[in-house]
Design goal:
23% helix, alpha+beta, D-Maltodextrin-Binding Protein, domain 2, 8-stranded mixed β-sheet, 35 strands
């Protein structure tokens, strides 16, 4: 059964502990295995917010039941911890030192719902400092993350029906032309206990730097209070709870209440916008998280801060207020009067996932969900309070047409992998007209992964290394040329062979080795140059030009392997004394004719070694004569004394007379 036909059959939920009928059961799932033999599940790291749980658990189900891998789900904290997790940092949720770059195997491989541009400096630092393991971005999930101000759909509809105005656009909030407050509650109807005091030390409304920026970019000095003692500015809230924009500051009944949470999320932006765009607003900060999340339901005719995707206010079908297009120049200067930009919600994976499980990485790269898809999952879970497993399983069954397109063809291989016929239990070069299941496997050593274009599209096959090449590693995309001194005369080799004795190779990628010149050989295996060749033992190279002319050594010469006339004359070889030719003891040769050897009458007279060497001051050939006035004593030439000279002269005369 092909992967595509298998996917089509997955229709019935929760059979044998699985979500999908025919899904791989837990007992048959496998772990990832790295090059060191370490085995571990696919790690899915979940930053802790609702849309993140929805996306990551959905992916976990498909990885388990369709691709057959064990999965571990680890709860994270925020966006940054996700960056660290799939970058191989050992403690991604740690504050200060998450333990990046320690060389450990990455155990977290997937993070969905990653707001990549939310913390650009952290992302860029990881990419620059740990390029080999830093998280890889596989692109957008299909929607953007947005933080902005929202109005319930019901309020928008009432304004459109009553006056034909569209309160989702900022221009219909201009107090000089419209009165949007008639469609919202008055701040007087909102219990004071729901909002913090503006003077709360945790509120952005007491932050001097924030308030000073408000003056710089809006000129609204009247909207602030200056403490002369501390020289600090804070927001002016006449009733203690609400900051009023200039267009309704003199009459609070004309102000539209806006509620936010935390320390005052979005307050600075809305102070700029409401002032410069003449929007009548009253800005307040919820007293607690529960007050923030309950406020739009208790007071449905309101205006509130929110982010998407998120389930908190989905039942209200909130509509985002559209402000003037984002001006990057103004925003970077501190002027927040234009719209904020959406953040790409992306899919991050570890660098090694493409090697460990390329089909899983390919699957993640194909995932595309609409915001409507995500909202449907979020709202279902909120309404039912079921687990994320149960909720995403329902979505998988109801939206098969969506996620089925994410499942890659199992025969669509990636570099480093090749087509594998599971029926023949062997690699193959084609994927059509076969009844056996074709999958991708890492190319074994001795082969490399090569692109194949067929009628289906692009894939890769494993091809044996050609002659003259080798590849010791698996999952390779090319083979290595044999080095100098090596060769390979077979295909599909893991290693190259060393040139044998008497042969050499001075080029890369050789299929055979070159032979040394006639009568020459090499000292050992793997010779890389013809210069490694030399005359065989008992022969000597008498050519001094760099060529070869090997002649047999005559009696009285010792000629080891690679002997040369130059070395005989100098008495030294770059290979050492054991490879230096020499005249044997008891023999003699002249400097001018070093290979013409004479036997000496006395071993003591001829020590051998370099040509022209005699003992005890003897000269002539072959070490047979002392200089004039000296005589050979059996071990050296000595100067003759007077009586010896007279005796020698008389003896000479007598010999002549005779």
């Amino acid at each position: 059964m092909t992967m595509r036909s298998f996917v089509i059959s997955l229709l019935v939920p929760l059979v044998c502990g699985t979500c999908l009928d025919g899904g791989v059961p837990p007992s048959e799932r496998k772990n990832l295995e790295n090059e060191h033999g370490d085995s571990y599940p696919v790690g899915i790291f979940v930053p802790d917010w609702a849309a993140s749980w929805a996306a990551n658990v959905l992916v976990a189900t498909i990885v388990e039941e369709i691709f057959g891998y064990n999965v571990s789900i680890v709860k994270g904290t925020g966006t940054v911890s996700g960056y660290y997790a799939v970058s191989g940092c050992v403690d991604p949720t740690a504050v200060g030192d998450p333990g990046c770059g320690l060389g450990n195997a990455t155990k977290h491989h997937i993070v969905m719902e990653a707001w990549t541009n939310g913390y650009p400096l952290v992302w860029e630092t990881l990419q620059n400092e740990y390029p080999g393991v830093a998280a890889k971005n596989l692109g957008n999930m299909g929607y953007e993350g947005v933080t902005s101000t929202f109005v319930p759909k019901r309020v928008i509809g009432e304004a459109e029906q009553a006056e034909g105005i569209a309160l989702q656009y900022f221009k219909y909030w201009n107090a000089s032309w419209y009165q949007p407050s008639k469609y919202f509650e008055s701040i007087s109807a909102i219990p004071s206990g729901l909002t913090k005091l503006c003077s709360d030390s945790t509120s952005v409304m007491t932050d001097d730097a924030t308030m000073r920026r408000h003056i710089v970019f809006t000129g609204d000095v009247d909207g602030l209070v200056h403490d002369s003692t501390s020289d600090a500015y804070s927001a002016r809230c006449d009733d203690g709870h609400w900051w009023l924009s200039p267009s309704c500051r003199s009459n609070s009944t004309l102000c539209v209440p806006f509620i936010t949470g935390g320390v005052g999320w979005g307050i600075e932006e809305l102070m700029h916008k409401s002032t410069k765009l003449n929007m009548p607003m009253a800005l307040g900060v919820a007293a607690s998280w529960s007050a923030y999340t309950e406020f739009p339901f208790l007071h449905p005719k309101s205006h509130f801060y929110w982010w998407i995707p998120d389930p908190t206010f989905l039942e209200l079908e909130p509509v985002q207020v559209v402000y003037p297009p984002h001006d990057k120049r103004l925003f970077s200067s501190g002027d927040l009067s234009t719209a904020t930009v959406g953040v790409s919600v992306d899919k991050h994976v570890s660098r090694d996932l493409s090697i460990l499980a390329p089909n899983v990485e390919n699957f993640v790269s194909k995932i595309l969900m609409t915001l409507e898809d995500m909202n449907a999952i979020l709202l279902d879970q909120k309404n039912t309070t079921d687990s994320w497993r149960q909720t995403t399983c329902r979505w998988l069954h109801s939206n098969q047409h969506v996620w089925q397109s994410w499942i890659p063809d199992e025969s669509q291989c990636f570099p480093g992998f090749g087509l594998y016929d599971t029926g023949l239990d062997d690699f193959t070069n084609h994927r059509v007209n076969t009844s056996n299941k074709i999958v991708c496997q890492a190319c074994p050593s001795g082969t490399f992964s090569q692109l194949l274009e067929d009628s289906i599209g692009e894939t890769y096959i494993c091809v044996p290394c050609a002659k003259g090449k080798s590849q010791p590693l698996g999952a390779a995309t090319d083979c290595n040329l044999c080095k100098s001194g090596e060769y390979q005369d077979e295909i599909g080799s893991k290693t190259c062979k060393r040139c044998e004795i008497g042969l050499y190779q001075d080029e890369l990628g050789a299929e055979v080795c070159k032979s040394c010149p006639a009568s020459t050989t090499t000292l050992g295996l793997g010779s890389v140059s013809q210069k490694d060749c030399g005359c065989e033992e008992h022969n000597i190279n008498i050519d001094v030009s760099g060529s070869y002319n090997c002649v047999p050594c005559s009696e009285g010469l010792t000629c080891p392997l690679k002997s040369t006339l130059v070395d005989l004359q100098s008495g030294a070889s770059y290979l050492g004394q054991q490879y230096t030719p020499k005249v044997q003891e008891g023999y003699f040769s002249t400097v001018l004719a070093p290979t013409e050897v004479y036997r000496c009458s006395s071993v003591a007279a001829c020590p051998g070694g370099t040509p022209g060497t005699c003992n005890g001051g003897l000269t002539n050939t072959p070490c047979a004569q002392c200089r004039a006035g000296a005589t050979w004593t059996g071990s050296q030439c000595e100067e003759c004394e007077g009586w010896r000279q007279v005796l020698w002269a008389r003896t000479s005369e007598n010999l002549r007379a005779a």
